[in-house]
From TrEMBL:
InterPro entries the record matches: AAA+_ATPase, ABC_transporter-like_ATP-bd, P-loop_NTPase
Residues annotated as domain ABC transporter: 5-242
Native species: Aquifex aeolicus (strain VF5)
Keyword Ubl conjugation: no
GO molecular function: ATP binding; ATP hydrolysis activity
Keyword terms of this UniProt record: ATP-binding, Nucleotide-binding, Transport
Keyword ATP-binding in record: yes
SUPFAM superfamilies hit by this protein: P-loop containing nucleoside triphosphate hydrolases
Protein name per the record: ABC transporter
TM helices/strands, residue ranges: none
Length: 253
């Protein structure tokens, strides 16, 4: 299987505090890989290393077989073109209309005219099941689930090989959360994009993921298929997922 991401013996310290300790894992092409854990467990720290916002204290961060900490600024920019990022709160630009948000990268870097960009925006919105009625709206005019869809459309606009979802169902009601789960699955199936999902949403993680990684205090507790991890004989995991086991049996996307 082709590796898209690989972390090797990663340690990260900040002001003498260990954030990540001997973290090792791979994410393979086309899979949905979810990282779960409590607040402060190290989930977001891992994504910062992958996109090159942080450098590890020790270890290798390989993305598309390139060691991210060793890349120059220009090389890092090239790498990031192949990574889509869906921020926890969507992070849409309030002063831009929906279509401008979706094609923001091309507004800043491309030479396309307005009509080409609007067409491009609509093509990406259709991939997340949104029609042209929202093109000229502002983010403030959208409800939470729709804002999340627009954020995902922006993330896929450059046709990245890897999409990182940071708490994609955060702040959404249970029904809308399952809609977003279904969307993540559909996008993977339509585009073949590799997905790395950071989430607190246990139902989401255990229903859409090919593999799940559980992290606590910067250390990996378990990695495996959802059915393997949910029954893993570790007290933290059983405490973490025990309360939702019955829900998971009936949860479908």
């Amino acid at each position: 299987m082709d590796e898209v991401v690989r972390l090797e013996h990663i340690y990260k310290e900040i002001e003498g505090r260990v954030i990540l300790k001997d973290v090792n894992f791979s994410v393979y092409k086309g899979e949905i890989f979810s990282i779960i854990g409590g607040s402060g467990s190290g989930k977001t720290s891992i994504t910062k290393l992958i996109v090159g916002l942080w450098k590890p204290t020790k270890g290798k961060v390989l993305v598309f077989r390139k060691n991210v900490p060793e890349l120059s600024g220009l090389e890092l920019d090239e790498l990031r073109k192949n990574i889509g990022y869906v921020f926890q709160e969507g992070a849409l630009f309030d002063s831009y209309r929906v279509w401008e948000n979706v094609v923001f990268y091309y507004l800043e870097h491309g030479k396309h005219n307005k009509e080409e960009l609007r067409k491009m925006a609509l093509e990406n919105l259709k991939l997340v099941n949104v029609d042209e009625s929202v093109l000229d709206l502002y983010p403030s005019e959208l409800f939470g689930g729709m804002r999340k869809r627009v954020a995902i459309a922006r993330a896929i606009a450059t046709r990245p090989q890897l999409i990182i979802y940071d708490e994609p169902t955060s702040g959404l009601d249970p029904i809308t959360s399952r809609v977003i789960d279904k969307l993540i699955l559909e996008l993977r199936n339509k585009t073949g994009t590799t997905s790395l999902v950071v989430t607190h949403d246990m139902i989401s993680a255990f229903t859409i993921s090919d593999r799940v990684m559980v992290i606590k205090n910067g250390e990996i507790i378990a990695i495996g298929k959802p059915d393997e991890v949910i029954d893993y004989p570790h007290p933290y995991i059983q405490e973490f997922v025990g309360a939702i086991k019955s829900c998971l049996k009936h949860a479908k996307v």
